[in-house]
């Protein structure tokens, strides 16, 4: 009788490890598109991962990935969430059924941005037709506002970038967008494919003046960087993440490596908005016209 | 005559306004009782300050308006960024930004910036004011309702559309004379 009673007392101990597992938070990875460099990208976005961990009950790890790696790593099931440029959102939606979570707000157009073709003021290049036979510098090839938008602008003006320019180049290494603005400013190139957001920020910071450049052409606006979720992400968790992103305000903080940081300020974002997938249709049309992924055909 | 820089012209304007104020004090009628004289002085002081401010704002943002009117909206936005370094948070900059963004097709941002400007300064609704934007705001409300209300009704769970529609209603209420 006493032995049975002792066994009964010990019985709950068998379930304790199971209780530990129940208390475990799901561990998920967020893939952030590498912007200028890996270190800067990590420092910018780790507070967002930490904030989402605090708000949703899941544990998010920050992973910085290069643009061309996302499709493969999403197909391998590595990332639950991704934060990428809007072209990559479109590509991943086609490839793996990425679900739209929220769009980042930054700059004059809010959730949207644009690409421009610029020349140094006084260079004699006054309109887009003048760029034939000139030296042009693009941003990264998968950048909607540093490559795609300008490629499309040239095609619309009857200029074939592959034939009608003296030559074009893409700057190496980090800080490509700033490099191309300076390349035109200092005369190494005649025309640059500048993201409007970078022009805006460089003007705000006093690196350039509004009168330094002539804007030869500018694209229509389309969504800026976007948070997407894997198609198989738990719908309840998806809803929690979306609400947390939309609620994120300038005073919200999160802990990273023992330090409490303002999430939006650190990430350079002004907030997140709830867009519709149809808001990306203009960019889809641009990619089709420029024969860019995911609509590329040979 | 040497051409004055923008800052030089602004200083000249301020100097003239101050000189006007001093002249008014010096030549104001005497002997009509201190209370009446003081009230008159204050009224004139207010009016002069209002006129000086209006002239200053017009002069300050003239390059932005010039760029916008010559069909260079992005350059106008960049000029606003440049001016914001010295004059951050100026509500008239928000008004100009709203107008330019509307012309560029970002109606949601135009609504947002007009709402921010009106929360800081209600004079843009004053029909007799030097910077009245009453007609523009009324047109924007009509456009906002036509554009965003059907979208919001089709997607009632969309929080951003809900926020934009709320801002349109805010502008509408200010046009109707409602308080904050």
Protein described:
By secondary structure, chain A is an alpha/beta fold. Helix content of chain A is 39%, strand content 22%. Chain A has a 6-stranded mixed β-sheet with strand order 2-1-3-12-4-15. A 5-stranded mixed β-sheet of chain A has the order 8-7-9-6-10. A two-stranded antiparallel sheet of chain A has the order 5-11. In chain A, a hairpin with a 2-residue loop joins strand 13 and strand 14 (259-262). The longest helix of chain A has 22 residues, at 2-23. Chain B is 76% helix and 0% strand. Chain B has helices at residues 6-27, 34-69, 73-86, 91-103, 107-120, 134-154, 159-175. Chain B has 180 residues and is mostly helical. Chain B is flat, with a radius of gyration of 21 Å. Classes of the chains: A alpha/beta (298), B mainly alpha (180). The A-B interface holds A 108-112, 114, 116, 196, 199-200, 203-204, 206, 209-211, 215, 218, 220-221, 246, 273-276 and B 72, 74-75, 77-79, 81-82, 84-85, 97, 101, 104-106, 108-109, 112, 151, 155, 158-161.
Which descriptors would you attach to this protein?
heterodimer, A: 298 residues, alpha/beta, six-stranded mixed sheet, five-stranded mixed sheet, 10 helices, globular, B: 180 residues, mainly alpha, 7 helices, 76% helix
Brief write-up:
The complex is a heterodimer of chains A (298) and B (180). Chain A is α/β, with parallel strands linked by helices. Helices cover 39% and strands 22% of the residues of chain A.
Q: Please give the share of residues in helix of chain A.
A: 25-40%
Question: What is the count of β-strands of chain B?
Answer: 0
Q: Beta-sheet strand percentage of chain B?
A: under 5%
- What Rg of chain B is obtained from the alpha carbons, in whole angstroms? 21 Å
Poorly predicted runs of 5 or more residues of chain A = 13-22
The averaged pLDDT of chain B comes out at 88
Helix content of chain B: over 70%
Number of helices of chain A: 10
The tally of helices of chain B reads: 7
The share of residues in extended strands of chain A comes to 15-25%
Straight-line N-to-C gap of chain B: 50 Å
- Count all strands of chain A and give the number: 15
Structural class determined from secondary elements of chain A: alpha/beta
Q: Which two protein chains have the largest interface (Cβ within 8 Å of the partner's Cβ), and how many residues from each?
A: A-B, 25 and 24 residues
Shape assignment of chain A: globular
